[in-house]
Design brief:
The chain has 9 helices and 6 strands. With 238 residues, the protein is an alpha/beta fold.
Length: 238
């Protein structure tokens, strides 16, 4: 899996290990990977998935059938479209959309060799509804969900299922600065029918479910892990 050193990624690694999986974590930070290796016992690959040479090293390191591929690496820089320069837009699209597609393509032989593999994209509800997250991130996450639908059809003959998990605000280091603002937290909770922020493990269990044989008849889907946010319409008027 990519991006597994903290937050949702680390929770996914822990969940899969708890289910008996042998996990390889890919991340750019050697320090973060060292901690995960020490604490969880995973295999680690230091690599930037947006760099072709690093992707080639990842593919070369996966020499056995690959049963589960989780694309979790991602980031965001919030800005109106007119506030982005070319490089920032290209960076966000490259990490959040292009790299997962290229890595899936390059690992296809290992996935096909597994016989019944699962590819899981960690997307975002920002790819489903309009939010003030910035258009580059939102477009990339929407693209991930559509890529899952198209690949699910393309790869069914190879026994490869492809799905997306789309979280809403989750309590991770990346969003803690937002959650620390009372006005922002109140606005988020007001849009969340369950009335609370998700914990990383709640997203991780959804990813794990899609990886398991229990989900063997599910492919091309986008599972929102959002406390009901995306189904929120107009509250009852009395």
């Amino acid at each position: 899996m990519t991006g597994g050193t903290r937050g949702i990624g680390r929770a996914i690694a822990e969940e899969l290990i708890g289910l008996g999986a042998t996990v390889t974590v890919i991340a750019r930070s050697a320090d973060g990977l060292d901690a995960v290796v020490r604490e969880l016992g995973v295999t680690a690959i230091v690599a930037d998935v947006t760099i072709a040479a690093d992707r080639a090293r990842i593919v070369a390191a996966i020499t056995t059938p690959l049963h589960v591929l989780v694309h979790n690496a991602g980031t965001n820089i919030r800005s109106p479209l007119v506030g982005y320069d070319d490089a920032t837009i290209e960076q966000l699209i490259a990490l959040n959309l292009t790299a997962p597609l290229l890595l899936s393509r390059d690992l296809h032989p290992q996935l096909r060799a597994a016989g019944a593999a699962s590819v899981i994209h960690v997307g975002s509800v920002a790819g489903q509804v309009a939010l003030a997250t910035g258009v580059a991130y939102a477009a990339a996450k929407a693209g991930l969900a559509q890529a899952a639908r198209t690949l699910a059809l393309e790869w069914e003959r190879d026994g490869i299922r492809v799905n997306t998990v789309a979280p809403w605000y989750t309590r991770t280091p990346l969003v803690e600065p937002v959650l620390a603002r009372p006005d922002a937290l109140a606005a988020i909770l007001a849009r969340t029918p369950l009335g609370r922020i998700a914990e990383p493990r709640e997203v991780a269990t959804a990813v794990a479910f899609l990886a398991l044989p229990a989900a063997s008849y599910i492919t091309g889907q986008c599972l929102a892990v959002d406390g009901g946010m995306t189904i929120q319409g107009l509250a009852a008027v009395t």
